[in-house]
């Protein structure tokens, strides 16, 4: 078993990383690190982890053989540098960094240390995403030429109710909007899936946006992607889909059109099917993320020295770059759009 340590005890650690690591037969969840002493102690107790640290040096010297970085993006570089100095392979949460220059420093640091760097693109490991990849590769719907990936939600809403009963801005959603908005935060997964399913890089992209909310980044965005193979993908992402409504909407769809059929996945209705001239095949419906599958792949990668289905640092950075440059292009072009009368 590989002794692994996790840096950052926040939301994604709690629901995504720590449960599969606690239950893993291939990793020994050995150490946690978070500057928040109360939080790291609480997580260590709940997930049965022997070593809990608020200082990274003690964490790096605890005997771990690999690290998962689940801290906020602005501290990823500092944490990766520590891992590289201690010879630790890294699985880092997306985005690698807040800008392309810093992301490249992360990639270069790990390359110089001759250590593997993978990024937490956990959607690839969901059963539905794996099935789509296999069907596309097997030619089940012929040549795939059109894809639509939709994730419209409210990012937990614009407001939250405080302990005093007063409604206030929900800071977590506000922070995601200030960091670049939904395409940079969530849409990177969809851009990555489209390229990975098709095995074909994006060669040209163009975004469109709407500003239901008052941030610089658009809170509802469409991103059009042309792939080298000739296929076209449209990614639609929203953080304002019912963001001020009491009852919520949620739309999560994958749709692939090929010369010989279609594949359609809807998260909310349990629909997942393959339609061809022979008829309709119902496919096994799953959730859209799978952290346990990602850690299995990480264990394989450490064993065989090959990424398998894991997203490498370079791939992750290309995807983030597409999402960021498209968002910047949409913000630039906003000046030429008609201003809504409010
Ligand atoms: N792959 C996914 O589906 C997915 C989902 C959610 C978040 N994320 C990504 O995961 C990362 C963390 O997101 P989150 O929502 O869990 O954030 P969070 O704010 O809930 O948690 C971050 C934690 O990191 C800790 N931290 C701060 N500085 C640190 C440091 N120097 N070293 C170690 N820990 C430090 C904080 O105290 C906090 O406990 C982000 O990059 C985010 O984009 C990915």
Write the layout of secondary structure elements.
Layout: E1 2-7, H1 11-23, E2 27-33, H2 37-47, E3 51-53, H3 56-60, E4 66-69, H4 76-85, E5 90-92, H5 100-112, E6 117-119, H6 127-137, E7 144-152, E8 159-161, E9 167-169, H7 171-178, H8 182-198, E10 202-210, E11 220-227, E12 232-238, E13 251-258, E14 261-266, E15 271-276, E16 279-282, H9 291-304, E17 311-312, H10 313-333
Parallel strand pairs: 1-2, 1-4, 2-3, 4-5, 5-6, 7-12
Antiparallel strand pairs: 6-17, 7-13, 8-9, 10-11, 11-12, 13-14, 14-15, 15-16
Helix pairs in contact: 4-5, 5-10, 6-8, 8-10
The structure holds nicotinamide-adenine-dinucleotide.
Descriptive labels:
342 residues; alpha/beta; Rossmann fold; Dihydrodipicolinate Reductase, domain 2; 2 domains; globular
Short précis:
By secondary structure, the protein is α/β, with parallel strands linked by helices. The protein is 36% helix and 27% strand.
Question: Could you explain how this protein is built, in words?
Answer:
This protein has 342 residues and is an alpha/beta fold. The chain has helices spanning 11-23, 37-47, 56-60, 76-85, 100-112, 127-137, 171-178, 182-198, 291-304, 313-333; strands spanning 2-7, 27-33, 51-53, 66-69, 90-92, 117-119, 144-152, 159-161, 167-169, 202-210, 220-227, 232-238, 251-258, 261-266, 271-276, 279-282, 311-312. The termini are far apart. The chain is 36% helix and 27% strand. Helix 1 links the parallel strand 1 (2-7) and strand 2. The longest helix is centred in the last third of the chain and has 21 residues, at 313-333. It has two domains: 2-115, 3-Layer(aba) Sandwich (Rossmann fold); 123-336, Dihydrodipicolinate Reductase, domain 2, CATH 3.30.360. Nicotinamide-adenine-dinucleotide is lined by residues 7-13, 33-36, 39, 70-73, 75, 79, 93-94, 120, 122, 289.
């Amino acid at each position: 078993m590989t002794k692994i340590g996790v840096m950052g005890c926040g939301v994604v650690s709690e629901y995504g990383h720590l449960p599969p690591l606690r239950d893993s037969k291939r990793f020994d969840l050995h150490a946690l690190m978070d500057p928040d002493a109360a939080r790291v102690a609480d997580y260590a107790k709940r997930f049965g982890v022997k070593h809990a640290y608020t200082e990274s040096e003690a964490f790096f010297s605890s005997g771990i053989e690999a690290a998962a970085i689940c801290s906020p993006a602005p501290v990823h570089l500092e944490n990766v540098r520590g891992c590289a100095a201690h010879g630790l392979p890294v699985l880092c949460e997306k985005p690698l960094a807040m800008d392309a220059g810093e992301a490249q420093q992360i990639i270069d640091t790990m390359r110089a240390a001759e250590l593997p760097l993978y990024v937490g693109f956990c959607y690839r490991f969901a059963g539905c995403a794996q099935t789509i990849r296999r069907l596309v590769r097997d030619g089940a719907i012929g040549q795939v030429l059109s894809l639509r990936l939709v994730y419209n939600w409210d990012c937990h809403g614009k407001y939250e109710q405080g302990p005093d009963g007063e409604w206030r801005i929900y800071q977590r959603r506000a922070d995601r909007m200030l960091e670049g908005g939904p395409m940079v935060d969530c849409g990177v997964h969809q851009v990555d899936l489209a390229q990975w399913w098709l095995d074909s890089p994006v060669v040209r992209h163009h975004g469109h946006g709407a500003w239901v909310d008052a941030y610089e980044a658009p809170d509802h965005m469409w991103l059009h992607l042309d792939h080298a193979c000739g296929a076209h993908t449209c990614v639609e992402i929203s953080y304002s889909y019912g963001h001020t409504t009491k009852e919520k909407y949620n739309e999560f769809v994958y749709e692939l059109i090929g010369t010989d059929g279609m594949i359609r996945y809807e998260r909310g209705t349990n629909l997942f099917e393959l339609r061809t001239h022979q008829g309709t095949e119902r496919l096994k419906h799953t959730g859209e993320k799978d952290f346990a599958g990602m850690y299995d792949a990480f264990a394989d990668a450490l064993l065989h020295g090959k990424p398998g289905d894991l997203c490498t640092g370079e791939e992750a950075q290309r995807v983030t770059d597409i999402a960021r440059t498209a968002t910047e292009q949409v913000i630039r072009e906003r000046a030429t759009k008609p201003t809504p009368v409010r």
